[in-house]
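Input record, target 12 of the design panel.
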């Protein structure tokens, strides 16, 4: 299962994960993106890559990704409360197309994620990604509206491939349990 989740990630996202994993081998971090959700969105055109790391290494991961030449055309968002663009001025001044957005978020809970090949890289399951997507959209952490996040929820719930009890438990821990009552 773990390799299936990792294999679904785009190559660009995997390169971000490998860079962080190689530079910080003792850091626990989770990696996911919106590639699997793109077909459910109406107005989101750029992929958003989430790097969830331990709080102690948050600043170092931000510096690593914002200064890496391979990811210079990406906008890196980071912050304790509400993530802000770290390198937007540089990316805008470059004049090229901004391809992806990287959001670095401090997190301490990696218990319910899938470990990739005995490394320090975790990939969350679909239920956790859906709940986190909605939580980030509702709190204004992302350039994604709540309506877009709700469209993703609706599509995946209709597909019937979700573990609803896990979704409910995780949503309750993220203070979104009320949302499942609506469904």
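The sequence produced for target 12 reads:
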């Amino acid at each position: 299962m773990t390799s299936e989740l990792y294999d679904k990630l785009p190559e660009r996202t995997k390169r971000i994960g490998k860079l962080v994993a190689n530079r910080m081998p003792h850091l626990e971090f989770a990696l996911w993106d919106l590639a699997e959700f793109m077909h459910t969105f109406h107005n989101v055109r750029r992929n958003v890559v989430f790097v969830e790391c331990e709080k102690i290494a948050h600043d170092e991961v931000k510096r690593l990704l914002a200064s890496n030449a391979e990811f210079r055309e990406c906008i890196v968002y980071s912050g304790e409360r509400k993530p802000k663009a770290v390198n937007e001025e540089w990316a805008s001044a470059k004049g090229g197309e901004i391809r992806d957005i990287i959001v670095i978020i401090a997190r301490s809970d990696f218990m319910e994620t899938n470990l990739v090949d005995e490394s320090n890289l975790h990939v969350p399951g679909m239920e956790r990604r859906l709940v986190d997507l909605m939580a980030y959209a509702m709190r204004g952490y992302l350039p994604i509206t709540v309506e877009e996040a709700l469209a993703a929820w609706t599509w995946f719930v209709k597909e019937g491939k979700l573990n609803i009890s896990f979704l409910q438990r995780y949503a309750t821990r993220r203070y979104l349990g009320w949302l499942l009552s609506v469904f």
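The beta strands are 29-33, 47-53, 75-78, 84-85, 100-106, 113-115, 121-124.
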